[in-house]
Write a structure and sequence with these properties.
Layout (H helix, E strand, L loop, with lengths): L10 H14 L4 E5 L2 H15 L5 E5 L4 E2 L4 E2 L7 E4 L1 H7 L1 H8 L5
Helix pairs in contact: 1-2
Length: 105
């Protein structure tokens, strides 16, 4: 299944719910967004889910996130990382296009 077939299926909501659950379990959580506007959008959604815990940190992918180690700057052992699909799709758009180029319809 290609990227477009996954649009509007609730992936971001499920990811944010998992991040909020991890925060409720006492972990500090990083959510990686595609860019600053997307980070603002996710931050607003996370505030509703986080119930004021303040342990969900939303950052754009280009700010202090190392894709090779999959760790943001300042991450400690036990912290959680949740990457929104839009960040992955933007970062690896050419590779994903090549990956799905010959998918069966």
């Amino acid at each position: 299944m290609g990227i477009d077939e996954q649009r509007q299926t609730g992936r971001t909501t499920r990811m944010l719910n998992a991040a909020a659950e991890s925060a409720r379990e006492g972990r500090r959580v990083f959510v990686i967004a595609a860019d600053y506007d997307h980070a603002s959008y996710l931050r607003n959604r996370a505030v509703d889910l986080d119930s004021g815990l303040g342990s969900i940190v939303v950052i754009p992918q280009n700010e202090s996130f190392d894709w090779d180690s999959f760790r943001p700057l300042g991450m400690r052992d036990g912290d959680g990382v949740f990457v929104d699909h839009l960040a992955v799709e933007q970062r690896y758009r050419h590779a994903l296009r090549a990956l799905h180029r010959f998918d069966q319809q």
